[in-house]
Amino acid sequence: QHTNKKHQQRKMLAKVTARPPDPLFGLNDAFKKDTDPRRMNLGVGAYRDENGNPWVLPVVCEVEKQLADSRKYNKEYLGIVGLPEFREAGAKLMFGEESKAINEDRIGTVQTISGTGALSLAMKIIRKFFPQSNGEAPTIYISNPTWANHKNIITGNGLQWKEYRYYDTKNNCLDFDGMMADLNACPEGSIVLLHVVAHNPTGYDPSEEQWQKILEVTKAKKLYPLFDCAYQGFASGDLDKDAYSVRLFDKEGLEMMCCQSFSKNLGLYGERAGTLNMVFESSQTRDNVMSQVSNVVRQEYSNPPRHGAEIVATVLNDKKFFDMWTRDLKVMANRIIDMRKALFDALNECGAAGKWDHIITQQGMFSFLGVTPAQAGHLTSEYHVYLTKSGRISMAGLNADKAKYLANAIKETLETVKE
Question: Which strand (E) or helix (H) includes residue 100?
Fold first, then answer.
């Protein structure tokens, strides 16, 4: 049938080219297609039990039963900034009961689509409301390396990023001197993204003394801290200890943002429960900014999901459930610590070349093995060990037997692949 070209619809998206798949999710897809019984998924950052299965925390199961039986529970829309009980309890968990900002009523908290959504909202606020230099979008200073999605979120929201030194690849340790030199070289008033605890991907965190020095340069250079917290309580098993950096900065009365996720520490990966906490100089500034943030949220997604927030709010506001959660947290944190020790011992026992102390000095879900991209590729192709090209592995994917298998695979790979 003849079609008059004059009346053909314009092909608006015909010239869009395909983008390569996300490396991490592509790795997970490749693992699922692998039928080798030895296959090992050490890529995706989600907790697994000793048998390699997802673990729904017992406290979450109990809370969901209570919610299902409650006459008050419903599926109505939340307000634009989210569930009040969730937002208030989340801020107290992060900043502590004695928080200067909370007690002075200077915190504004928005419920977000987990930590990723908190970061994206933070970038939108920075892009729209922060001062610009010479008409250019603000620059976010990020650690090298950092979580891969940080760069996507920053550039996707029209901002720029630059890196500060963080990891010493030669010695497999924190490059604190390099970090301090780069932070001191930042233009005054720069925005610096800092990992609160369990740095992703390296597993290396500054010590308390080093955080004090980071605070000093932050004050001297008038830097604006943007904290990212995905692992409070998950790193050490101690919620207060893991929040040290944020609370240190809060005591000094600094303005800041803190992105908070409950995906890892409550196992609510698919519920997308998180917050963006913003600390202001005054409650009046807080009220002004929150009114603008509400408008941004309304444009983006109207209001956040309810179920995950209800779970978190119930856990944080009920002592029985909170105590149960802290026990669950220690189960996860201790298993990760045990797996670090198991891999460390297995590497030394099999005689793998090099020093492996970094495996047990790092903390949190991830560890940097210290292998090259070619060696990481060899581990995948020859041993069916799925890890990122950077050599990052999720310790949660291991058990005692898998640690020994991985250690022997690393030993052979280091002997075979020299680049």
Answer: helix 100-103
Max Cα-Cα span within the chain: 77
Q: How far is CA 389 from CA 43, 94, 138, 396, in A?
A: 10, 33, 30, 18
Catalytic residue among 124, 264, 402, 404: 264
**Tens-digit pLDDT profile for residues 146-172:** 998 999 999 999 999 999 999 998 888
Assign 3-state DSSP to the chain and report helix, strand, coil percentages, each to 5.
Answer: 50, 15, 35
Minimal CA–CA distance to 122: which of 105, 142, 102, 103? Answer: 142
Burial of residue 363 (number of CB atoms within 10 Å: 0-12, 13-18, 19+) = buried
Mean pLDDT along residues 211-238: 96
Strand ranges (E), 145-298: 160-165, 167-168, 173-174, 191-195, 224-229, 256-261, 273-279
The pTM is what?
Answer: 0.93
The active-site residue, picked from 147, 356, 402, 404, is: 147
165 Cβ neighbours under 8 A, 6+ residues apart: 144, 175, 178, 179, 181, 182
Q: Are 164 and 192 in contact (CB under 8 A)?
A: yes
Q: Which residue has the tokens 């990891």?
A: 167
Active-site choice (175, 182, 205, 228): 228
* 256-261/273-279 β-pairing: antiparallel
Between CA 413 and CA 402 the distance in angstroms is 16
238's CB contacts (< 8 A; 6+ apart) are: none
With H, G, I as helix, E, B as strand and everything else as coil, classify residue 133.
strand
Query: Has residue 312 got a pLDDT over 80?
Result: yes
147 given a catalytic annotation: yes
Q: For residues 195 and 245, give the distance between their C-alpha atoms in angstroms, rounded to a whole number.
A: 9
Q: What is the DSSP letter of 54?
A: B
Q: Rounded CA gap, 278 and 394, in Å?
A: 30
Which residues are CB-neighbours of 320 under 8 A, at least 6 positions away?
none
Active-site annotation holds for 228: yes
d(CA 395, CA 151): 24
